[in-house]
Amino acid sequence: MHDASTRQQPEVDVRPARARGRRSTVAGATALAVAGATVAAAAALLPTAHAAEPEPLRDAAARHGRTVGVALSPGHLSQPGYAAIAEREFSLVVAENAMKWDATEPSRGQFSWSQADQVADFATRHDTELYGHTLVWHSQLPGWVDGISDPADLRDAMTDHVAAVAGRYAGQVDAWDVVNEMWDEDGTRRDSVFQRVLGDGYIAEALHAARAADPQADLCLNDYNIEGINAKSNAMYDLVADLKADGVPVDCVGLQAHLIGGQVPSTLQANLQRFADLGVDVRLTELDIRVPVPASAASLTQQAADYRAVTEACLAVERCTGITVWGVDDGHSWVPDVFPGQGAALLWDASYQPKPAYTAFAAAWGADPGDGGPTDPPTDPPADGDCAVTWTANAWATGYTGSVTVTNTSGVAWPSWTLEAELPAGQRLDQGWSAAWSQSGPTLSAVNAAWNGSVAAGASVSVGYNASHTGDTSAPDAVTVNGAACAIG
User: Fold this and answer.
1) 214 pLDDT higher than 90
2) pTM score, two decimals?
3) What domain range includes position 452?
């Protein structure tokens, strides 16, 4: 993973006051209707695989009481494809760079609000929550802050900055990243100007200042490489426990989740849960999953499975308030600039086309894939008999290779597909190919790869996987594709 101090992060928009808490989202059609000419111009750039657009992510997440967010850069909103996706899909926005110290207070006491206000305005116009990022961070600081060596002077500078920024948007922001990236990888304190000059107490001081400036907002601590249980996340856990015990206002922990394909921590869900058990909310705040570029079909399949696994971990923890992806599309991602040879980390490619990761992410939220015309409402799932499956196993002592062929018998082409089956007891997925495979309990899932999502009426698609077993190698007796029960042959 990386030291986030080497990257430039996106900016945050702010908007007028709204009630705090998890809010229901409006339909994507409403967002598009108010978007005007910009969104109309974007229509040709958005995916056209379905005659009707899939259900927006924001609506699917709302059914779980969660929000799905995006890091927004107001400078890109003039690009129709970027704007249309941001407006349609997300129920929360966070600024990539616009609310950071160097953007808001480049000279002491001299504030610049233009970019941050644009994000706030976007949130207001499109009925999204606003997440504040970030008030105190060792990076992207103006030189005048780094140069302060007197504790009283730095304390005044920090608390004045928090008061000004959080105060300007008081009542508008649902939650603030009050302090960002305070840990080194070994769980010791990062050697920032705040740590050197003010000592360990600066985090509590910043939280108290934020509470005074914006009593309604949740106050969060945010860091990267704390997604799994390790020295760094242990340090954050101990800090939050101590702050809670001391009566310091801390309401949430953000786990950035800048991940590498195939490396979702196995302890992610357990880690989210242990923080939640402290009495704070948790959120995946900056999710992207980078792969080598140009991205291969195999790496995109793995990435899709990873996006689904992260979403399922959040949904399994009651106090996980949602997931924010760190950017709209691969063409506006920070990853390639910081990690040469890596990228393709987001849900849409640089042409604003949805990737397998989008399909898997949407499926994990339970989003309706859509059908009919562009403005048709969602319809019921296909009736039984719209698909047929043959499922065979080539077994050995402790494992087997499963071969699955799915035939579209519906009479209508599938623009994408998701297969689900209940595996017999003792069977466990090891790996798969030609789809993004995952398993939750006995439920085995496969989401189409980028190259085999479209299945014409009467056509078939073949996929496979390896699994372990404890004696029973029989095929599932119930299989669905896109929610429709399939005939099994």
Assistant:
1) yes
2) 0.69
3) 387-488
